């Protein structure tokens, strides 16, 4: 066979294989950086083969641009190979900015150097036994070679590093690439670089495309295997490519134009059929994988459902047992708390006499001394004795309030209910406070609109509740006064509003106003340091015991307060 025809067939076959493999990988995942870089690499391999072929069939000085084109496109190949191994097997290129800048700079310098006379300065003609002209090397050909070999070695180092840190599955994929790369590297360095530059012959250059095939096939297998493509899909694609290559060879070997046209039409039909075949196989494999995945999930769901059915009763029994145990623990704890609460209440009730009796005795002795039955004493001593009496009265009142609150909490009946006119209760309390309001210069306004209802209350206890509320309003009002208004919010209920112009309350103070913790606001403690906050808590419990309600409102600090008392009408 004619040598030029053989070279043409080699280039056509390798071109078809390269193009087919590049397209297969690219359309497998068009968003993957690895696939995109491999497709670009395949494209420049095609360009390199074009330069290589035309460098062969042109003899003479016109060969020089094609020869330089070989080195120019080769620079793209080896640097794209570096980016390929950096991205594989991920879908994106992970490279540091400084590294990218360095590699691109070296690539640009190498590619541009290949187009200058400093690499190939001229052609010396065709040597005996060769079919392409020999080249005259420039002064910087070693620099070009150093850059090319250096980036190939760098690619090999990246491969080895990634292989060492790869998973078991990824190592199998890297094995394909390393094997193909090793064959390519050894054959390219020995036959295309060392032989050409050391022996001065280009006898192997025309067959350079053959060295690319192992690396391409290894890379394609690694990519497709990593993407978990079915073997059936790979086999269909490779078989189709093989058929295309065979038809291309047949076209090249055609003896007449008519035969070329006929075989070209057959080739086009076969290409379309092959694409349809590959697409059908892909769809079949995809549907099969989806069915297998659904079947797997269904089997898992059935297994879990069966386990649930088998163990459901056991789980129910176990949870029931745990609930019963928790209930018994809670029941015992509640009974213990109730016993402790009863013991506390009993203690409070039994200690009333012991709390009140000493104060009553002290108060009796103070009154006896003040009556001067045991002799006269000077005014200073009398003042001290009066202070003792006043302190005793305050203490007695505090103890009585505390005991009343405790009795209400215990639930002991301490009330003597009877129908009473609501106005009479209010007026009686206001009369008790009249002297104190006059002393402070405050006004008391009782707004009356119509008759007042009868309410069913314990007069003494309820007057205590009213007194605490009125006294509280007067105590914390320094200017202005108190306004009392009667309304009927509902047909069977009466509401009394005690509004003052005093210090007001914050939201935090309102929330704790009627608690048994007896807490007061900072401003209230400033105005009345001796107050304990017990009175409002007692009033609240007394009104609640009368089936009523007590609450407070305020627009804020220093904006006054409003206390609302609601009671059912008798």
TrEMBL record:
Q: Where are the transmembrane segments?
A: 6-27, 36-60, 66-85, 97-120, 140-161, 173-195, 207-226, 233-254, 260-278
Query: Keyword Transmembrane helix on this protein?
Result: yes
Concerning SUPFAM superfamilies, the annotation shows: ATPase domain of HSP90 chaperone/DNA topoisomerase II/histidine kinase, Homodimeric domain of signal transducing histidine kinase
As recorded in UniProt, coiled-coil segments are: 288-346
The Swiss-Prot or TrEMBL record annotates one GO molecular function as: phosphorelay sensor kinase activity
Respond yes or no to whether keyword Repeat is given for this record: no
> What InterPro entries does the record point to?
HATPase_C_sf, HATPase_dom, His_kinase_dom, HisK_dim/P_dom, HisK_dim/P_sf, HisKA_7TM, Sig_transdc_His_kin-like_C
Annotated signal sequence range: none
In this chain the Histidine kinase domain maps to 350-570
User: Which Pfam families does the UniProt record give?
Assistant: HATPase_c, HisKA, HisKA_7TM
Listed A to Z, the keywords are: Coiled coil, Membrane, Phosphoprotein, Transmembrane, Transmembrane helix
EC no. given is 2.7.13.3
Question: Reaction catalysed?
Answer: ATP + protein L-histidine = ADP + protein N-phospho-L-histidine
Q: This chain belongs to which protein, by name? A: histidine kinase
Q: Which organism is it from?
A: Candidatus Colwellbacteria bacterium RIFCSPLOWO2_02_FULL_44_20b
Q: What is the lineage of its organism?
A: Bacteria, Candidatus Colwelliibacteriota
């Amino acid at each position: 066979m004619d040598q030029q025809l053989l070279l043409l067939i080699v280039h056509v076959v390798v071109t078809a294989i390269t193009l087919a493999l590049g397209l297969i990988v690219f359309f497998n995942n068009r968003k993957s950086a690895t696939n995109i870089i491999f497709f670009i690499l395949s494209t420049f391999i095609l360009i390199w083969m074009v330069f290589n072929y035309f460098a062969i069939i042109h003899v003479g000085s016109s060969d020089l641009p094609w020869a330089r084109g070989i080195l120019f496109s080769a620079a793209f190949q080896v640097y794209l190979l570096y980016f390929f191994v950096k991205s594989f097997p991920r879908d994106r290129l992970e490279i540091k900015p400084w590294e990218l800048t360095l590699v691109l700079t070296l690539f640009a310098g190498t590619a541009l150097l290949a187009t200058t006379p400093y690499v190939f300065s001229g052609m010396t003609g065709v040597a005996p036994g060769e079919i392409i002209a020999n080249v005259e090397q420039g002064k910087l050909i070693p620099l070009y070679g150093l850059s090319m070999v250096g980036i190939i070695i760098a690619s090999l180092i990246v491969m080895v590093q990634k292989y060492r840190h790869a998973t078991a599955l990824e190592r199998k994929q890297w094995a394909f690439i390393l094997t193909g790369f090793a064959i390519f590297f050894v054959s390219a360095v020995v036959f295309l670089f060392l032989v050409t530059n050391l022996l001065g012959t280009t006898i192997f250059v025309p067959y350079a495309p053959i060295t690319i095939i192992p690396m391409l096939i290894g890379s394609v297998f690694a990519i497709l295997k990593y993407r978990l493509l079915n073997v059936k899909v790979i086999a269909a694609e490779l078989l189709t490519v093989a058929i295309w290559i065979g038809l291309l060879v047949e076209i090249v070997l055609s003896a007449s134009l008519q035969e070329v046209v006929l075989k070209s039409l057959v080739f086009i039909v076969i290409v379309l059929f092959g694409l349809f075949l590959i697409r059908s196989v892909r769809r079949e494999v995809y549907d099969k994988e989806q069915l297998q995945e659904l079947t797997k999930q269904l089997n898992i769901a059935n297994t879990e459902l069966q386990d649930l059915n088998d163990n459901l009763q056991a789980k129910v029994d176990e949870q029931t047992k745990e609930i019963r145990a928790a209930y018994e623990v809670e029941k015992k704890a509640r009974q213990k708390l109730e016993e402790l609460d009863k013991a506390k209440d009993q203690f409070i009730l039994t200690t009333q006499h012991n709390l009140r009796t000493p104060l009553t005795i002290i108060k009796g002795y103070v009154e006896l001394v003040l009556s001067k039955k045991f002799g006269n004493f000077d005014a200073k001593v009398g003042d001290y004795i009066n202070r003792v009496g006043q302190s005793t009265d305050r203490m007695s009142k505090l103890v009585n309030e505390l005991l009343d609150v405790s009795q209400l909490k215990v639930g002991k009946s301490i009330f003597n209910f009877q129908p009473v006119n609501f106005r009479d209760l209010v007026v009686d309390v206001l009369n008790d406070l009249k002297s104190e309001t006059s002393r402070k210069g405050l006004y008391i306004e009782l707004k009356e609109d119509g008759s007042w209802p009868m309410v069913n209350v314990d007069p003494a206890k309820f007057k205590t509740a009213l007194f605490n509320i009125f006294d509280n309003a007067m105590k914390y009002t320094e200017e202005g006064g108190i306004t009392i208004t009667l309304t009927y919010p509902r047909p069977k209920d009466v509401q009394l509003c005690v509004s003052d112009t005093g210090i007001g309350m914050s939201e935090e103070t309102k929330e704790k106003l009627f608690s048994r913790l007896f807490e007061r606001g900072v401003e209230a403690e400033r105005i009345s340091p001796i107050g304990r906050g017990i009175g409002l808590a007692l009033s609240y419990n007394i009104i609640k015991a009368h089936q009523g309600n007590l609450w407070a409102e305020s627009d804020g600090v220093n904006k006054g307060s409003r206390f609302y008392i609601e009671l059912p009408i008798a």
